[in-house]
Amino acid sequence: MKLKNRGFMLITFIMALVMSACSSDGEKNAASTGTSDGQTTTDVPQEIVVRVNDDPDFLDPHKATASISYQMILNIFEGLMAPETDGSLKEGLAESYEISEDGLTYTFKIRQGVKFHNGDDVTMEDIQYSFDRLMGKNGGEKMSNNFDNVASTEAPDANTFVIKLKEPNSNFLYSLTARQSAIIPKSNDGKHNENPIGTGPFAFVKYAPGTNLELKKNEHYWQEGLPYLNKVTFAFQSDDQAAIMSLMANEVDLTSVPWHRVSEVEASYNLSHQNNNSSLIVTFNETKAPFDNVKVRQAINYAISKADIIDSVFAGYAVPLGSNMSPAMGDFQKKGLESMYERDVEKAKALLAEAGYPDGFKTKITVSSHNDIYSNIAQIVVANLQEIGIDVEIEVVEWGIWLDRVYFGRDYEMTTIDLTGRASAYEILNDYISTNDSENFFLFKNEEYDKIMADVLKETDQAKQIDYYHRAQEILAEQATAVYIADYQIVWGSDKQVTGLKSYPFWFHDMSEVKFSN
Amino acid sequence: MMYILRRIILLITTILLVSIITFGVFQILPGDPVRTMLGTEADSTQIENLRFELGLDRPLYEQYVDWMKGLLTGQLGDSIRFSMPVKELLFDRLPVTMSLAGLTLIIVLIISLPLGMFAARRQNKLSDVSLSTVTQIGMAVPSFWLGMMLILYIGLQFSFFKISGYIPWTQSVTGALSTLILPALTIAIPQIAVNFRYVRTAILEQVQLDYVRTIRSKGMSEQNVMYKHVLKNSMIPILTVFGLIMAEVVAGTIIVEQVFSLPGIGQLLITAISNRDFPLVQGIVMYITVAVVMINFIVDVLYSVLDPRIRLR
């Protein structure tokens, strides 16, 4: 009997714990947003928690290479030029610029009165220091290959900065945004990774590895009235499903929503659709038989159904592609190529037979396990190619091994991956230049393509540049360099009160104009 | 004394062996940490710079000697992924995992012990059969799924419970509980089931013994019989299982921290492995090894206290 009483007491204790736990409602909201201090100017707390799925690789903008880092740190740093949402450029720390007729001299007038987050003015010395650091001219290691073409840099007066190139390069201005050449203070030398200081709308507060990155409002930001938010917290959470639950539990205010779960959140949250500007491809090692035969590559292009992949993997949230460029790139994209290889199994079989493989062949598709989409795509590829007699085995490997073996080692037959979008058309297409050893993992080799990509750098007229880029895309399609599947959309789900989100043709959570509205 | 000395020698040998294996394994495993960290976006200069900075361009034996030296002085090197000392990262995460493991153990204990005793006393009655069935299910449930269910049906329904992140005890006790209860329950539920069954069996074995009949016949109260004699004599088999459960709890934190985005050692280990951050993995594996080996050591010592005959074996 006494034992029974103890059991009863235990249950009562647990119940009491749960009940008391459930009753402290207000505290949770305060903890999740930390905003109930009433110190903000409006009724709505201007603090946001943005979920990202991984830590930055570096906070030092000259060392960072991963897209995920720039999603966050472009809020801290600025370059001489700044990106626009349509992929074009506008002036950033430079107030204006001029390019000499021969395309070799770039003269920038620097905006006056801009301050770093530590309160110091931006000086010519800081700008010079930033470029010297990137080029390895101040005694340290060279930080980037982007500036190999720079002959000299100089500051003739207190608000002019001049860069001279060895050869004209129509893509050079793209190297001057914060992503490639953030302007950082000389006084912070040696501490750029631990305590990053820039001129952007938000200043660094704290980085807790694996947990979050905290930024605060730059009170002295040079753009009048911006930013609106007082605090931005990037919370790292790798699991998409858990992230959705965190959104529902009000623990994050903004996250990407897995495509198949959009219907669960669309009623209660704001959804915005961003063309990712990446090219999701199924590709081949073009030096290995049978993929060295263009007819085999074309047969595979006819056999794989982009619509099947878009519907089943991306729940329809994707735009079909015909070459390595997304509609997010506007006029730079050659339209119409997406219908060049409409699904045609008979044609695919005929092409295979012409290539000398009437009964098909056996091959392997190596995919990374770090994102489900790759193995999901591989399964559709297997089913599609089976219809034309190609027997594909799926090999799933870890991301590190994929990089080692497929991307850098080129030891593969087929693979699927999404190539991250860049703001510059040249940087998107230069992966296929035969001498681009670091990025051309397809081992694609085409003389006409190489020539076009060399010529476009010397062309200053944008209409003519576009013609070059269009022809380059046609070559990729004609040569069936890869199966260009789609640019999938990222669906962002946010609290209904969040407004001012801007989407760029590359990964950047621009928080400068974001605010909570009633 | 000899018994404890033998155990200590075994403990040190295990730790040393694990340290050698961990270093070796990461030299054989495919995947380059620098390339994994920088991804496809990095150019050759950036890759070379980082390799140099991390000392990965040096001969393997030099790296090995350095690591061993560091290990002896308690310095575990720098994490490749996070560019900061492994020791610092471990110390930041340790309180989270320790709190989670501690809370889990408390939950397991306060539920499974009374429940096991209760079921044993009502052997083959309806309540015993139902409890055994329920716990059978509890044992079979995968912790990942269980975590998700707790998030869905408790975390999202009752706003007190946080489903991600961690609030330190020093900042707020209720805050810490709000972040830890659901993950602790996720690990505890299957362990309660395991422990319940062992407690029940151990007590059933005892109550059938002659001495219990004797003390009962002498008129001792049922409560005294159970707590003073039966429970104490059942402790040896229960302790064995409890040692195993503690090891399970430490291992269980790995998955559960991932599900609840709890910034503990387990979550750090997953990140470290996927990034081929071997200084960090080595550090964490050493921590887990020491924790598990120490738990086993304590259990062994406790045995010898409870039953002196064990020391003679």
TrEMBL record, chain A:
One of its GO terms (biological process) is peptide transport. PROSITE patterns: PROKAR_LIPOPROTEIN. Residues 1-23 form the signal peptide. One of its GO terms (molecular function) is peptide transmembrane transporter activity. Keywords: Signal, Transport. Pfam families: SBP_bac_5. GO terms for cellular component: ATP-binding cassette (ABC) transporter complex; periplasmic space. Residues 90-421 form the Solute-binding protein family domain. The keyword Signal applies. InterPro entries: Peptide/Ni-bd, SBP_5, SBP_5_dom. Transmembrane segments: none annotated. Belongs to the bacterial solute-binding protein 5 family. This is ABC transporter substrate-binding protein. It comes from Lysinibacillus irui.
TrEMBL record, chain B:
It is a multi-pass membrane protein. GO terms for cellular component: plasma membrane. InterPro entries: BPD_transp_1_N, MetI-like, MetI-like_sf. It is found in: Cell membrane. Its main location: membrane. It comes from the Bacteria. Coiled coil: none annotated. SUPFAM superfamilies: MetI-like. Residues 94-303 form the ABC transmembrane type-1 domain. Keywords: Cell membrane, Membrane, Transmembrane, Transmembrane helix, Transport. Belongs to the binding-protein-dependent transport system permease family. This is ABC transporter permease. It comes from Lysinibacillus irui.
